[in-house]
Structures are given as C-alpha cells and as structure tokens.
Write a structure and sequence with these properties.
This protein is mainly alpha-helical. It folds into two domains: 6-68; 74-171, Up-down Bundle (Substrate Binding Domain Of Dnak, Chain:A, Domain 2), CATH 1.20.1270. Helix content is 65%, strand content 10%. It contains five helices and two strands. It has helices at residues 15-31, 42-56, 80-105, 111-137, 145-171, and strands at residues 6-14, 61-68. A two-stranded antiparallel sheet has the order 1-2. α4 (111-137) packs antiparallel against α5. 13% of the residues are buried.
Length: 173
C-alpha cells in the first residue's frame, strides 16, 4: 500500500513471449495466405500485434496496476471487502511490530538463547498457522473465511508480541 492507495496486480505481460506468439501467427498467416474468398486478413493483425509488442520491449515484464482510492473506515467496516482489507492491515501492523521486537531482542541475548528463540519462534509460527486454519475452517468456502483467518493471525501475533516484549524487558536488565 502506498499513500493510502491499495495496489492490485492484475497481470503481467512478457514482451518476448508476445513477440514469439506474433511471429508464429505471422508465419502461419503467410503459409495460409489466402483464406476464404481469397482474403488475406491475418497478416495485418499480426503486424499490429508486433507493433504493440514493440512498445513493451523497454521492460521485459510490465504490471498493470489498479489503484483503489478510498480506504475503508476500519472502525466501522461493514462489507466483506472492507473487513478483509482492514483485517489484512491489522495483521500487517502486528507482523511488523513482531519482527521489530524480534530484531531488537537478538543482539541482547547469547548465541544459545538465540538458538532457543529461533526454535521457539518456528514452533510458534506452526502453532499460529494451525490455530488460525482451525478458526477459519468453520467458514470454509464462505465469504468470512479470509476475515476470520486474518483476524486470528493478527490476534495470535499480538499475543506473541506481549511475549517478546517481556523477553526484551528481561534481556535489558
């Protein structure tokens, strides 16, 4: 997200693949030069595609981006789409905070404690994912699945943040 706008990747076009397709179409058109009634229609279309591909050459892959200008009111989100966006933002904020605390803690503990913390964190990630898969599983296939899953991940992550804050406080003594 940039400047209050949500970026959605719609797709990408690889210019080299497009040119290859155009060349195949052109070659086929030349071989089958005369279609019904002796018309020659495929080559002009192939040439237009080749020209369009030429504009894509400066970047080997370009992404088309749609920007949604309005942010949902997360304090009063009502639609499924708004709930999903808000729960995703909440999760992202919690995950960022968790990672910051983890990075702050590492230089304050011994190498043996770092190994233990790493092991604990990996176990916690497995626990978090399994817990939230279970919580969202009761809505499988429903529109609430994403919201429930994201909200669960955010809540479990916030609980882990409290753990890391305690570790950091004790390590700073």
């Amino acid at each position: 997200m940039r400047g209050g706008l949500v970026d959605l990747a719609i797709g990408s076009i690889d210019a080299r693949k497009l040119i290859g397709i155009v060349l195949i179409v052109t070659d086929t058109a030349l071989k089958n030069k005369f279609m019904k009634n002796g018309t020659f229609w495929a080559t002009p279309a192939a040439i237009l595609l080749l020209l369009a591909a030429g504009f894509l050459l400066p970047s080997t892959a370009s992404k088309i981006t749609v920007q949604i200008a309005q942010q949902p009111n997360c304090k009063n989100a009502k639609t499924t789409a708004d709930l999903n966006v808000c729960s995703s933002q909440d999760l992202q904020a919690a995950d960022t905070k968790l990672n910051q605390l983890y990075q702050q803690l590492l230089p304050k503990i011994s190498s043996q404690q770092k190994q233990r913390l790493n092991k604990a964190q990996l176990s916690w990630v497995n626990f978090r994912d399994a817990t939230c898969e279970y919580a969202a599983g009761q809505f499988d296939g429903g529109s609430a699945t994403t919201f429930v899953y994201n909200s669960c991940l955010a809540e479990v992550t916030k609980n882990r943040i409290k753990d890391l804050e305690g570790y950091l406080e004790r390590a700073s003594l």
